[in-house]
Amino acid sequence: MLKADATSPDRVRAPKAGEIIKLPNLAKTFRTLATEGKKGFYSGRIAEELVKVVNDLGGHLELADLQHHLETGSEPVEPISLKFPNPHGTSETDGVELWEHPPNGQGIVALMALGILKHLIKQGTIPAFGPSDHNTAPYLHAIVEALRISFADASWFVTDPNVAPGVPTSQLISAPYLAERAKLFSSSSANTSILQPGDPYASPALTSSDTVYFACSDSQGNAISFINSNYGGFGTCIIPAGCGFTLQNRGANFSLDAKHPNALAPRKRPYHTIIPGLVTSLQDSSLHSVFGVMGGFMQPQGHVQTLLGQVLCGLNPQQALDAPRVCIGAGMPDEGDVYDATVYVEEGMPEETVEGLRKLGHKVEVVKGMGRALFGRGQIIRWTKDIDGTGVWSAGSDMRGDGAAYPA
């Protein structure tokens, strides 16, 4: 899929700006889709080449698997949510409700982290952070520790609920369970031990379950949050003969431990990283915003940071996206251990914050230049009403990517 060039070391290279590249095999695939629809992809020439290249490389895929997916289709799911009251509000209806995609997606990580922070604020363990606290060491310490606890659970429990029906989604985001998990937090030091998943079944709740993001909105206050991905860069970089596209590598998020709930199995969906986000107002359930942050395991971390930046610290969508971010773990599997103890801090974070995190015991690494792609690329559309009741849209697009916010 590269451009032929006899002067390049491998006689091929990426096209330069302004050059023409022709992809006739991809064009042929598009023509098939245009005339035959999904059936043209999951059966016939394309399906046969797809199965052949996977099996030639030692994989396990049959035409019957593709036929099964064609017949089954994509499954509609009910979103999961968590209410986050604004601690600076005048009533319990001041605040937001964050809606996420359920397992096998990792949106539950963002919900759990928010739930832990909500409990810590309620108990007075951490302050009700405000604008002056944004991206200070205590503020980021609380976020980092809440995310680390949440990922410890997600790394075990997030899997395909149709194959492993014991996925305890409702229990994991229940107030009693999150209060129990919040006990692992210390405001004075980082938790440097390897965190183990909790036992949501023992919760009191049971004694009484390459990414592109875009958002669109209309004049009536409706909006859509959409994300799509083949996972790592060009996916597997495997190209079925004569098809012109690379195969995704979402299977990388299966576990090879046979005892793990997310163990590799036929016709099973793995832990999935892509999560579109939507936020509503606690006051009247009206739309607050639609948003997303692309970037592997950075996604729920980006959701938490950009949302709290708006709700607690008064940032507008663009300010929330522009602010330096942190990332625990490597973000993407090909960049290292996604559950590593390192806290990666983006260039531009105040030096006082960096040193403050280190004093709390965090292993901190400042990421500069192009490496800042680690911190994802986000988009936000926000809906508010003016004092006279007129609906007002505002939006932001991440400077780390090539997106933009366009009024139509």
TrEMBL record:
Tell me the domain of life. Answer: Eukaryota
Record's InterPro entries?
Answer: GGT-like_enzyme, GGT_lsub, GGT_ssub_C, Ntn_hydrolases_N
Q: Where is the signal peptide?
A: none
Tell me the Pfam families matching this sequence.
G_glu_transpept
In terms of SUPFAM superfamilies, this protein maps to: N-terminal nucleophile aminohydrolases (Ntn hydrolases)
Q: Please name the PANTHER family in this protein's record.
A: GAMMA-GLUTAMYLTRANSPEPTIDASE (AFU_ORTHOLOGUE AFUA_4G13580)
Q: What is this protein called?
A: Gamma-glutamyltranspeptidase
Source organism per UniProt:
Neurospora tetraspora
